[in-house]
Known about the structure:
Layout: E1 2-12, E2 15-27, E3 32-39, E4 51-58, E5 61-69, E6 76-83, E7 99-103, E8 109-113, E9 125-126, H1 131-136, H2 194-202, E10 206-209, H3 228-237, E11 240-245, E12 248-256, H4 259-267, E13 272-275, E14 294-300, H5 305-308
Parallel strand pairs: 5-9
Antiparallel strand pairs: 1-2, 1-8, 2-3, 3-6, 4-5, 4-7, 7-8, 10-11, 11-12, 12-14, 13-14
Amino acid sequence: MRRFIRYLYEYEQEKKMRNVGFVKVEQDVDQCVIHVHGKGFRMEENAQGLRVYLFWNTEDKCIGIPQGVTEVPGPAVNWQLCYTPEDVGKKENYDLVNGIILKDVNGHWYAAVWNDDVVNVCRMEMWKMEEDYVQGEEPECKKGLAQGEEPECKKGLAQDEEPECKKGLAQDEEPECKKETVQDEESESGKLEDDLEKEACLGGKVRKIQRKDMVCLPRCEWRHANNSFLIHGYYNYHHLILTVRDDRLKLGVPGVYHPQEEKAAESFGFPEFIPAEELDLKLTDEEKNDREKFGYWCRDIRGSHDCVEPQKR
Length: 313
């Protein structure tokens, strides 16, 4: 176990302006816990929770990855972050982490750096998952399967439930929802996987997925794995969802509802909010927020109408 304490400073570019507290770090190979103790943060009328990022530096760059939001700063902030190698994009990033950054809505930056490197935290760039990593990373639903075995993500939301579109068909007859194909400009690079087709045909279902399971979506949706709004919600609540609403298959990012968050979600392509109580979904304490109106910011998955449309016929 590695344990150490570092001071927390307010920054302007590369310059430390003033001390606002300290962080205590406890790290081993499986997880790291950071205890943030600060006071003297700049308080303004529109004060909100501080956005939290882990970061590492490569030459002249500071690379950050979102880790959630603290409570609204009061006279003091006492906050804890616990993360694992899976929470920093990919496991190789775990040993690269060189500090923590806190940022408020008015552009004030605070950071603690593990070593003595000079870091321009105010010019942080967000880490992006490379496309070859998205394609090469095997989704959780496909790990440990025999070569010809069907992965869980292709069995539908209810493993033993037969989709409506298949009921009453002969054994080898193809359901209508599989006869249509995506005709838009993205169809050549990827279609809905069988699992998503079956889920859409079932209607009204929901399930949790991991960010790397987005490889089961059409290729045109893969770019949203690097969407900073999605990344923020994923690392704050450790999951995403797939659900069917209004005859459309949707990708959902966990979060809370308030007008300012609605504007941000819409600007990032997630315009619809579905309250969690409307979904039949079991969540752990780490996967939800009981103190605010918690739910999912959603977007339609392109091509999902090709499976659900036959239900109306």
